Amino acid sequence: MSKDRLVVATLGTYDIALEMGKKVICQRNCETCNGWQALRCTMCKGSGRVHYQVKNYTLKSGEKETAECVADAIADNRAELVHLPSAINLHTPLPSKDCLTCDGTGVMSCPECKKQITSQNLCR
């Protein structure tokens, strides 16, 4: 009995190793990221920060249109923000916050490798 278990465990280990090797080799063939599985964020160009403009906001009753009231509306999610990609440079100082695409890291996962992993169509 112990030899049978050993054979099954060995075959299972080989199967797992071959499947993992297949995933690693196929991801190295990715033309988008060259196997790094990550890219510089296209929204913030790797800075981790993205500029935004306030498109629309709702003030509380009795509030006037001041910078503090608009800032409170942004903090309370009563404002609609438009995120501007780093490629757009308006040469005006705009507020910025952490990039939503990369969570402020400046690096996003490769969309091609992500498709391959989720669809399980590796090397087939």
Automatic annotation (TrEMBL):
User: What is any Pfam family matched here?
Assistant: zf-AtTam37
GO (cellular component) term, any one? chloroplast
Ranges for domain AtTam37 zinc finger come to 21-118
What is the protein's name according to its record?
AtTam37 zinc finger domain-containing protein
Originating species: Rubus argutus (Southern blackberry)
What lineage does UniProt assign to this protein's organism?
Eukaryota, Viridiplantae, Streptophyta, Embryophyta, Tracheophyta
